C-alpha cells in the first residue's frame, strides 16, 4: 500500500477558490448567452422586415409618383381656369365702367325727368279734379 501524506488527501483553499471562480464564470457565460441568442434572433427578424419593406416600397413610390403627376396636371388646368376667370372679371369690370360712363348718366337723368314729369302730371290732375272754391277758382295744392 502506498503511503499517502496528509497533504495529498485534502484540497487546498486556493484550489477551492479557483473551482468556485471557474463555476461562477461558467454560470456568467451561460446567463449572458441566452440574451445574446435572443438579440441575434431579433436582429435577424429586423433584417427580414427591412428587406420586405424595401421590396414593398417600390410600388408605393411609383404609385405616389403617378398621383403627383396627375395632381400637377390638374393644378395646371386650374391655373388656366383661374387666369380665364381673372380675364373675364377684368372684362366685366371694364364693360360696367363703360356702361356707367356712356349710358348710366343719361339713363339716370332720363329716369329723374320721367319721375318728375309723372309727379307734375299727377299733381295737375289732382288740382283739376279738386272742387271749385267761393270765387269760382279751383284750389290746388301748393
From TrEMBL:
Keywords: Membrane, Transmembrane, Transmembrane helix. The chain crosses the membrane at residues 16-37. InterPro entries: UPF0478. Pfam families: DUF948. This is DUF948 domain-containing protein. It comes from Saccharothrix violaceirubra.
